[in-house]
Design a protein that fits this description.
heterodimer, A: alpha/beta, Rossmann fold, 2 domains, six-stranded mixed sheet, three-stranded antiparallel sheet, B: alpha+beta, Immunoglobulin-like, nine-stranded mixed sheet, 15 helices
Chain lengths: 307, 777
């Protein structure tokens, strides 16, 4: 919750991904509820019938179909033309969005660091599985997007990813609605999208999420909260200042207020989750002190993002 | 609960409480803190503040506790107190009994049951001081006049105001502390004087009567105007009287404390106090054999158990006789006896029932008689002693009635002189008496004798029809006998022809010279008697006193008076009528400081009296009665503590000294006729009057013929009521019967403010604790 002064930023890739984590991430692959089309033929089966070796189904021949796919054995037995359909393997687009506002730079451990590490880990998983990885940082810039790296593929591009992440400096605030609009317009293809943020947006998260949903993307909201946000270590009479917009709130911390705060927080998270569920999105709330491997191996696997 | 200074606290509260709340708002110096978002906080605050603007205050336990502390302190500032009794008035009158019975030592002292008991007066003073302490004090805000005021009155048989109304507690306490016990009685029945009546009158003396406006109408009912009248028993302001006494107050039913004033009776002492005391002490020399002295000692016991005491008689300080006395126990009966019921007649039925329900305790009485054969004068002292030990009786709370003194003059026969005509009947009547000396003088002879200073040897002088001219003031009067006070005039002594009556042609009446006289056939002047002259028709005596020693044994029915002298008695004169004829008194008694006389206004020779036996009896008993100090009972030398010592010293004494108990030494100057008046202190004991010069018969001359002359007086309590020490639980006043106050144990007011301050301190500590706990939530 509190802004941590003199944050130690990750300087190199190793700060984000260490060897131990990599070893745990290596067996993982991204998955989706749906098999998506991709631009390159990858290892992924698509729902589109295609030219892979794996049989999927039969369907009656209609005029214009490629005669090469007619199952002649069936024609021989039944004298009807039936096409043999095969599953097509496609690559998966992985779009990682992280919140690079000043509020992310709060908490101990820092929420932003957690997001950097999570993005690095998931990006690694995507890269090694030859998925198309795109990372977008939302932040205090025109349009709400600070920067984007697109269409990274292959393990060799991991450094590009890391450099992008290391180069981010969280500051200021932004409009989530605008940022989501920009992201929705600029993304290409189909795939999985993970949005890392605390989702504490003064103008609400609903408008933005509404813009991100659909268009072939399987959206997962990862709400990152610092332990201090969940259990405020505050006492006495305080004037709370919002790090993003400088808004002041005078509070006298007493147990009824704390109780009320926690209740509000829980309600907020619940509301986010409910909103996501209603729109076929998934949502997970994690503490910023959660180990990255737990997040990836446990939480996200349970959500069906990795396997 | 009462508040001594409620307004002070209210004002302080009006300032302090809003200040605290304002300070509470101001004191918030909030710490600035950056948070990731204020979104949730604002929402939480909005939620909490949704209902009321004071939500913040309500939820703030610290402010609550501070307000609590403040309330406790403010409450303390109001000086609350809890009282057993209600203080209903703003003006208090503290009436403290200091009569002899209040010296009884039967109240448990501060040292507890084992410590020596303290006297009732000390306890009364302690309770009165506790009352003074409980008075509301004026506060600085509204001035001292708002405080309670009190007045201190002390009474025995008289009342004295020691302190007028004041709110200065220091003065009140000093007045109460200064009260000294006396040996005086609480009422003198003969004079109908009661200390409590005077005290109540004194308590109300400076209260203004309430004025009531009344419409005045004429008989037809027309309104003539308004008249303002003051009403008895109603006063402008009410007072609360607090009477501290043991309740042995005879005549208290005459005390009128007013209808609206409250009276609280604080019964001091033990209702079952045990005491033995001397209630009467008398000596009599035998008339026939004056060397035989009989001393009667009356004793009283308030213990329910019979007890025995030794009665010790000391003659001139040496133990002469000891006699054991058996005293019956006090008689306790339920219900009121007839005398009490009669005295309670004025009060209502309900109160009478209360009286009936009370236990009536009658002390057991007994007596002891000592017989002595002693011709000299003596100072006899009687003391009560515990049998066996020779110490004071045990279980005896009052000391002052355990001893008494009695002065017995030397045995002496009377000397009697007849002044006036030679009369056979009178001579015969007197010759039969055992007289030391008996002479007859003519008027001029007696006047000569007086001038020579030799008249003093006669104890009783019988004036037969004439008043001697010995230089006394002449009072002229109107001979016609018209009503009105006689005008006094100083005129040179005029010789009066003997045997012609007191009124000469010039209308001059002579008063009696100092001495003791039996007067026949004339009326002395200056006594409040008006001579209306002789009546022509005969008269008979219709009634006479059967109690007076002079007429006790007479039968006057057959007496026929041919020439009755009509005398009108001024009611204020103090002359007692002891026999009545149809047209006025037939025998009168005059008792003044220097003169005692029995006056028979008519001439006995103009009546059948000399032939009657009653004449002899009357002359004999009159002479005996008048000369009693010489021959009979000796109560002239008995004084009441705090009373007046009145005596006549021989002529020519210029200065006398009075020595009494407790270093008393006073000097008195006798007046021209040798009389002295001195008010003795309220202490029992022996008072000695000494002077240089001639001695009267019966006086003791110290150290031979040249020494000072000594005359002894004794002051004793000798009061049945005072020796009856058990405390009465009710006090009967004219308006109602006051029961002893419930708080008679003397619980003082307890100030609560120190406890409230302590409570405040405790709350501060609790607040500190809670604050600390809150820090680590």
């Amino acid at each position: 919750m509190l802004r941590t002064p003199n944050q130690s930023r990750p300087k190199v890739l190793d700060d984000l991904l260490n060897a131990q984590l990599i070893s745990r991430l290596d067996p993982l692959d991204l998955t989706s509820k749906r098999v998506f089309f991709g631009k390159l033929k990858g290892e992924r089966r698509s729902k589109r019938r295609g030219q892979s070796v794996e049989f999927a189904d039969h369907r009656p021949y209609t005029v214009g179909d490629d005669t090469r796919h007619i199952d002649w054995n069936i024609y021989a037995r039944m004298e009807s033309l039936v096409l043999k359909l095969f599953l097509e393997e496609e690559d998966l687009s992985l779009h990682l969005v992280l919140d690079c506002s000043a509020s992310s730079d709060c908490g101990d451990p820092s929420k932003f660091l957690f997001m950097q590490k999570a993005v690095a880990a998931l990006g690694y998983v995507g890269l090694v599985n030859l998925n198309r990885v795109t990372v977008t940082a939302m932040g205090d810039k025109e349009g709400g997007v600070v920067g984007t790296v697109r269409d990274l593929r292959g393990k060799r591009r991991l450094h590009d990813l890391a450099n992008f992440l290391i180069g981010l400096e969280p500051k200021g605030g932004f409009s989530f609605r605008q940022a989501a609009e920009r992201i929705a317009l600029t993304r290409r293809g189909k795939g999985v999208m993970l949005v890392f943020s605390d989702f504490f947006f003064k103008d609400g998260f609903e408008e933005g999420l509404r813009r991100l949903v659909g268009h072939g993307y399987d959206v997962l909201c990862v709400q990152v909260l610092s332990p201090q946000e969940l259990e405020p270590p505050l006492t006495g009479d305080l004037r709370l200042k919002d790090v993003e917009d400088g808004d002041m709130a005078e509070v006298t911390i007493a147990s009824p207020l704390l109780k009320r705060y926690k209740a509000n927080l829980a309600a907020y998270c619940k509301e986010l989750e409910k909103f996501c569920l209603q729109r076929d999105m998934q949502c997970v709330t994690v503490r910023s002190d959660t180990p990255i491997d737990t997040l990836v191996v446990d939480y996200l696997r349970r959500k069906g993002v990795v396997k | 609960m009462n508040f001594i200074t409620p307004w002070l606290a209210a004002i302080a509260a009006a300032i302090a409480i809003p200040s605290l709340i304002i300070l509470y708002f101001l004191k918030l110096r909030r710490r600035d803190l950056e948070v990731s978002t204020t979104l949730l906080w604002k929402k939480a605050i909005q939620d909490l503040q949704a209902n009321a603007p004071f939500q913040r205050l309500r939820r703030n336990i610290l402010l609550f506790l501070q307000l609590l502390v403040l309330a406790a302190v403010l409450f303390a500032l109001a000086q609350p107190m809890i009282k057993g009794q209600t203080l209903s008035g703003e003006r208090f009158v503290i009436l403290i009994d200091r009569s002899a019975s209040m010296s009884s030592e039967d109240v448990e002292g501060p040292g507890g049951a084992s410590a020596p008991k303290v006297s009732r007066l000390d306890e009364a003073k302690r309770q009165a001081i506790a009352l003074v302490d409980s008075l509301k004090e004026g506060d600085a805000l509204f001035g001292q006049s708002r405080g309670d005021q009190a007045k201190v009155i002390v009474f025995d048989n008289t009342a004295e105001s020691l302190q007028t109304f004041t709110n200065d507690k220091r003065k009140l306490k000093a007045a109460i502390e200064g009260i000294q016990p006396t040996d005086k009685v609480s009422s003198i029945t003969d004079e109908q004087r009661s200390g409590i009546v005077e005290a109540v009158r004194l308590a109300l003396a400076d209260l203004p009567r309430r004025k009531v406006s009344d419409q005045v109408t004429d008989p037809e009912g027309n309104v003539l105007g308004n008249e303002t009248i003051s009403v008895d028993g109603l006063y402008e302001s009410t007072v609360a009287m607090h009477i501290y006494s043991d309740g042995k107050l005879l005549g208290s039913s005459q005390a009128r404390p007013g209808i609206e004033n409250t009276v609280e009776y604080h019964a001091i002492g033990d209702p079952a106090a045990k005491n033995t005391g001397i209630i009467t002490l008398k000596a009599e020399r035998d008339y026939e054999q004056p060397t035989k002295v009989t001393i009667f000692v009356g004793l009283q016991n308030t213990d329910e158990q019979p007890r025995s005491v030794d009665v010790e008689l000391l003659i001139d300080g040496v133990t002469a006789q000891i006699q054991p006395a058996q005293l019956p126990g006090a008689n306790i009966s339920q219900g009121a006896d007839p005398s009490d019921a009669a005295s309670a007649g004025a009060i209502s039925n309900q109160q009478s029932e209360q009286v009936v329900a009370t236990q009536i305790r009658r002390p057991g009485t007994s007596g002891v008689t000592f017989r002595l054969d002693r011709s000299q004068g003596m100072l006899a002292q009687v003391r009560l002693r515990q049998p066996g030990t020779g110490e004071r009786p045990t279980d005896d709370v009052l000391r002052v009635d355990d001893r008494a003194w009695l002065v017995v003059p030397p045995a002496q026969r009377m000397s009697v002189a007849i002044v006036g005509r030679e009369n056979l009947f009178l001579r015969l009547a007197l010759e039969g008496l055992p007289l030391a000396r008996f002479d007859r003088f003519s008027l001029s002879e007696f006047e000569q004798l007086w001038q020579q200073g030799r008249a003093g040897v006669y104890d009783v002088v019988i004036l037969d029809g004439a008043i001697p001219n010995v230089g006394q003031q002449i009072i002229s009067t109107v001979t016609t006998g018209a009503a009105g006070a006689p005008a006094t005039a100083t005129a040179p002594p005029a010789t009066t022809p003997a045997g012609t009556g007191t009124v000469n042609a010039a209308g001059v009446q002579r008063p009696l010279p100092p001495g003791k006289y039996l007067v026949f056939g004339t009326v002395p002047a200056g006594l409040g008697l008006t001579d209306k002259g002789l009546m022509s028709q005969p008269a008979t005596v219709i009634d006479w006193s059967r109690e007076h020693p002079a007429t006790r044994n007479l039968v006057l029915d057959s007496l026929q008076i041919a020439q009755f002298r009509e005398v009108i008695v001024d009611p204020a004169s103090g002359v007692t009528k002891i026999a009545y004829a149809e047209r006025g008194p037939a025998i009168l008694e005059v008792a003044k400081a220097d003169t005692r006389a029995l006056i028979v206004p008519f001439d006995y020779m103009e009546s059948t009296w000399p032939l009657d036996l009653s004449f002899v009896v009357f002359v004999a008993s009159s002479v005996k009665y008048l000369g009693e100090e010489v021959g009979g009972q000796y109560d002239a030398r008995a004084l009441a503590p705090g009373g007046e010592l009145q005596d006549t010293l021989p002529m020519g004494v210029t200065e006398a000294r009075i020595d009494g108990p407790g270093e008393l030494r006073a000097s008195v100057r006798p007046s021209a006729d040798g009389s002295i008046v001195y008010r003795i202190p309220p202490t029992t004991g022996v008072y000695e009057v000494t002077w240089e010069g001639t001695a009267a018969p019966g006086d003791i001359r110290e150290g031979g013929d040249t020494g000072r002359v000594l005359r002894i007086f004794a002051a004793n309590l000798l009061d049945q009521q005072e020796s009856d020490v058990p405390t009465a639980q009710q006090l009967e006043l004219a308006t109602k019967v006051e029961q002893a106050a419930a708080s008679a144990t003397g619980k003082g007011d307890r100030r609560l403010w120190p406890y409230l301050i302590l409570l405040g301190l405790a709350v501060v500590l609790l607040e500190w604790f809670i604050y600390n706990r809150k820090v680590y939530v």
